[in-house]
């Protein structure tokens, strides 16, 4: 994920130089893999952890910076230049698959003028690795990078009956996506449709026929929360991975749609003109409740050895967006502000509601990690656990080493080869009876075929071990021979043969001469 | 009062110094340092260690006197002094235990070798062969961990869904379970995708306190390139006991890296995510080539990334019937192939399994 230093500075007021910020982010789990200077800005390449989709936005990274600096993130307040009418006067939305689409919002901007984006917007997108298209499309991308919510802009006048239906695809339904590819949809996939046909693969990519063009006058801005597993399945099935699907399949903030949409329509009225509807259609029949998790403050020390004062633990969690709902200052609720103004000491535990953008917090240990992470892993001391255990090698390790050394002394080079053999050799090796003991699950792994795909066809069999060892050796011997070093083509492997548990393991050697 | 304090403090220092002196000849065995002693020398050394241990830790030893003196220390200092005395006591006992264990092990190997030599000699003396670099690194790592009190464990390479995923807290829809990432046999078993599976077997077999280390092969559907192979070797460490913390994890990782890359090695944690640990951390160590100043090997950062680690996830402990309120544990893992690449400066780890004789004969 590319993150702009200037953008972060606008959101957080951070004053550390890029190199220092890089170090600090890395030590908090946002590993900065690259840092490039580009047109007066510095761009961080951040390796986003798979459980932190909220870091796929500047807001998400800014929150982490805010915990470090102790300052709140300053998001711009969306203020559309011109407002006119209710959204329901221009469109309607029918969500027929609430299970795959728990929340769907739509808002309309009428009378826009499509044109290239102003330089500041085009340059910022380019620095983030995106190609500028037109002002409306660029604004939706900009807001996605800012707030982490993928949005889609439809040309309202190209939607049959000017309305949307969110439903599963019909059998044999087809859609030409924005990239110009005609795609065949499966019946389980979620689509956004108009009165007549699918107009977008939900959460993955919009359709070509309803996209914004130079002639577009009225736009519908859609922003939704789709079921992550459904988006992942669809994206895999279509072989189509997009910035939107990356975010949806890992989980976006289910309370962030209206804000992102307001920001988008405000920017549209500012940069492309037109009037936004006063409200948005918001179909959110079952409110999603964030999980609540308790933290006993002494568990931080018990697991990490860090001595974090409860006040500091609460401060960190609050800055990360956790809501204190119980405990903290001896049972008085009311959030951190209340605690700071109070002289009372925090109690021994507190209960928090997870932020709506966090999909990864369900247990006390998750809170311990958050507290320890921002208090600083670098403060963890080096200690060795007191031991009552006596070290021991595996059974027969002495013999194994002796066998290896004996073979080496006799001129053999030890070989280690893949545990797979070419399927072409499959019938050329036969196991000696009794060589393979019972396998992992009480049955011989023997000839189990490893489900293969094209790119590793050459290794598509899990070998019967003795056989594969020999096949591997034959292959390397063949290679040595072909180089005219026949005399040196001796190799040996010393290895447990068969899938037997260690207690029943045997030492086997395969020798090729 | 003052003279009393001096007395037990003096005694502690005296014991520490005496141990340093008496144990000096055996340090090389304890730390598995290279030596050129013959079999008979080793047998003598074993007798000497046993004798020194009796003198140094027996009923009439100064150490024994020290331990008895704890009870007479003034109350306000007793706890603190007692801790130091017990730590010293444990260290001395561990020193002797390790030195003895290593000597016994080596005497065992040498005896076997002698027997073999009797059979093969006299005869044509062939070209000397070579052990595979993976074996060399793996044996070295195993020896280090055994000396730190770990039992080396082994586990199946073909695993059920339970061991490879479920018990490791990897949810049913996790991408790691997909056929794009994991090899499956036609009858539905997975080729293990990490040695963490051995954690589960080990915790089922041994109850805490336990410390095990598990080296072995793992399999992932990666297209081979200079830094990836579809099969590679990992080593996994696991400690479960009462009161285990991340400080113990960090200390342990630092200790084994010091024994591998030198006493000046430092480590650092970076927060990370693994389904089977919480909190989780990746660990880096100071570059052994430039000492942390920055060079080509460490890409100028001074740090080398090595592996993943963390506190064993409570769901993993529960999956094997260990109460996370009573016990805690840490786990760490890293690639032996990667370590091999670092130690032998390999540009391309695909060479490891090509078994080209010209490659293999470079190592000893
Ligand atoms: Zn370096």
Concise description?
Chain A is of the alpha+beta class.
Folded structure, characterized:
The complex is a heterodimer of chains A (513) and B (364). With 513 residues, chain A is an alpha+beta fold. Chain A folds into 4 domains: 68 residues, Phenylalanyl-tRNA Synthetase, Chain B, domain 1; 197 residues, Phenylalanyl-trna Synthetase, Chain B, domain 3 (Phenylalanyl-tRNA Synthetase, Chain B, domain 3), CATH 3.50.40; 88 residues, Phenylalanyl-tRNA Synthetase, Chain B, domain 1; 107 residues, Bira Bifunctional Protein, Domain 2 (BirA Bifunctional Protein, domain 2). Helices cover 29% and strands 20% of the residues of chain A. Chain A has a 5-stranded mixed sheet. In chain A, strands 5, 6, 13, 14 and 15 form a 5-stranded antiparallel sheet that branches. A 3-stranded antiparallel sheet of chain A has the order 1-3-2. In chain A, α5 runs antiparallel to α8 and α10 packs across α12. Chain A is globular, with a radius of gyration of 30 Å. Chain B is an alpha+beta fold and 364 residues long. Chain B has 2 domains: 114 residues, Methane Monooxygenase Hydroxylase, Chain G, domain 1 (Up-down Bundle), CATH 1.20.58; 228 residues, Bira Bifunctional Protein, Domain 2 (BirA Bifunctional Protein, domain 2, 2-Layer Sandwich), CATH 3.30.930. Helices cover 44% and strands 16% of the residues of chain B. In chain B, the strands form 2 sheets. Chain B has a 7-stranded mixed sheet with strand order 1-4-5-9-8-7-6, with helices on both faces. A two-stranded antiparallel ribbon of chain B has the order 2-3. In chain B, a hairpin with a 5-residue loop joins β6 and β7. Chain B is globular and about 70 Å long. Classes of the chains: A alpha+beta (513), B alpha+beta (364). The site of zinc ion has 8 residues of chain B, from loops. Zinc ion (ZN) binds next to loops of chain B.
């Amino acid at each position: 994920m590319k993150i702009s230093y200037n953008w972060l500075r606008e959101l957080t007021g951070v004053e550390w130089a890029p190199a220092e910020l890089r170090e600090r982010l890395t030590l908090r789990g946002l590993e900065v893999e690259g840092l490039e200077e580009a047109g007066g800005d510095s761009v961080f390449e951040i390796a986003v952890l798979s459980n932190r989709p909220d870091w796929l936005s500047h807001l998400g990274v800014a929150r982490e910076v805010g915990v470090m600096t102790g300052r709140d993130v300053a998001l711009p307040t969306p203020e559309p230049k011109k407002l006119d009418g209710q959204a329901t006067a221009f469109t309607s939305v029918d969500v027929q698959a609430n299970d795959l689409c728990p929340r769907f919002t739509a808002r309309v901007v009428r009378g826009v003028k499509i044109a290239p984006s102003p330089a500041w917007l085009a340059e910022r997108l380019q620095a983030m690795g995106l190609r500028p298209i037109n002002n409306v499309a660029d604004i939706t991308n900009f807001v996605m990078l800012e707030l982490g919510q993928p949005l889609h802009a439809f040309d309202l006048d190209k939607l049959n009956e000017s309305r949307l239906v969110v439903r599963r695809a019909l059998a044999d339904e087809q859609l030409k996506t924005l990239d110009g590819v005609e795609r065949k949809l499966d019946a389980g996939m979620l689509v956004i449709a108009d009165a007549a046909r699918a107009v977008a693969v939900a959460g993955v990519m919009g359709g070509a026929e309803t996209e914004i063009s130079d002639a577009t006058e009225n736009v519908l801005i859609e922003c939704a929360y789709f079921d992550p597993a459904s988006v992942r399945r669809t994206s895999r099935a279509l072989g189509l991975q997009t910035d939107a699907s990356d975010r949806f399949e890992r989980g976006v903030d289910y309370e962030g749609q209206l804000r992102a949409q307001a920001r988008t329509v405000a920017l549209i009225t500012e940069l492309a003109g037109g009037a936004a509807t006063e409200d948005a259609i918001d179909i959110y029949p079952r409110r999603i409740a964030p999980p609540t998790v308790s933290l006993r403050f002494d568990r931080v020390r018990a697991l990490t050895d860090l001595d974090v004062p409860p006040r500091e633990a609460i401060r960190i969690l609050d800055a990360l967006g956790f809501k204190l709902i119980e405990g903290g200052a001896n049972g008085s609720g009311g959030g951190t502000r209340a605690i700071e103004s109070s002289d009372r000491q925090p109690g021994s535990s507190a209960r928090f509601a997870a932020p709506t953008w966090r999909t990864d917090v369900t247990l006390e240990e998750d809170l311990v990690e958050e507290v320890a992470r921002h208090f600083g892993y670098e403060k963890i001391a080096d200690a060795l656990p007191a031991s009552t255990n006596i070290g021991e090698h595996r059974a027969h390790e002495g013999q194994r080493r002796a066998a290896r050394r004996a073979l080496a002394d006799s001129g053999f080079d030890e070989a280690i080869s893949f545990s797979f053999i070419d399927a072409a050799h499959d019938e050329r090796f036969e196991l000696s009876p009794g060589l393979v003991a019972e396998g992992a699950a009480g049955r011989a792994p023997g000839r189990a075929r490893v489900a293969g795909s094209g790119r590793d066809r050459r290794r598509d069999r899990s070998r019967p071990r003795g056989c594969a060892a020999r096949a591997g050796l034959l292959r390397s011997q063949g290679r040595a021979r072909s180089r005219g070093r026949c005399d040196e083509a001796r190799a040996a492997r010393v290895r447990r043969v068969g899938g037997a548990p260690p207690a029943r393991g045997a030492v086997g050697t395969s020798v090729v001469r | 009062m003052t003279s009393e304090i001096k007395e037990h403090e003096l005694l502690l220092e005296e014991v520490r110094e005496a141990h340093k002196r008496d144990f000096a000849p055996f340090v090389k065995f304890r730390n598995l340092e290279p030596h050129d002693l013959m079999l008979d020398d080793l047998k003598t050394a074993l007798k000497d260690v046993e004798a020194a241990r009796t003198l140094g830790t027996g009923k009439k030893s100064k150490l024994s006197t020290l331990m008895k003196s704890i009870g007479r220390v003034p109350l306000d200092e007793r706890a603190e002094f007692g801790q130091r005395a017990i730590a010293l006591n444990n260290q001395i006992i561990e020193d002797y235990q390790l030195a003895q264990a290593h000597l016994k092990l080596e005497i065992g190997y040498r005896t076997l070798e002698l027997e073999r030599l009797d059979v093969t000699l006299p005869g044509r003396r062939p070209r000397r062969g070579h052990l595979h670099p993976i074996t060399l690194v793996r044996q070295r790592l195993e020896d280090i961990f055994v000396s730190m009190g770990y039992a080396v464990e082994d586990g199946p390479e073909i695993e059920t869904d339970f061991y490879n995923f479920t018990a490791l807290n990897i949810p049913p829809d996790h991408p790691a379970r997909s056929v794009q990432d994991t090899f499956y046999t036609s009858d539905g078993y997975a080729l293990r995708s990490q040695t963490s599976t051995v954690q589960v077997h080990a915790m089922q077999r041994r109850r805490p306190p336990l410390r095990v280390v598990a080296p072995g092969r793992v399999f992932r559907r990666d297209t081979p390139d200079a830094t990836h192979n579809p099969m590679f070797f990992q080593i996994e460490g696991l400690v479960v006991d009462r009161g285990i913390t991340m400080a113990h994890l960090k200390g342990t990782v630092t200790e084994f890296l010091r024994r591998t890359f030198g006493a000046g090695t430092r480590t650092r944690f970076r927060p990370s995510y693994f389904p089977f640990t919480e909190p989780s951390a990746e660990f880096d160590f100071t570059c052994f080539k430039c000492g942390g100043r920055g060079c080509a090997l460490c890409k100028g950062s001074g740090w080398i990334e090595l592996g993943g680690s963390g506190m064993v996830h409570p769901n993993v402990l529960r999956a094997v019937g260990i109460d996370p309120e009573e016990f805690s544990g840490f786990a760490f893992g890293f690639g032996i192939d990667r370590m091999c690449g670092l130690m032998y400066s390999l540009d391309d780890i695909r060479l490891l399994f090509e078994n080209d004789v010209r490659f293999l004969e470079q190592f000893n």
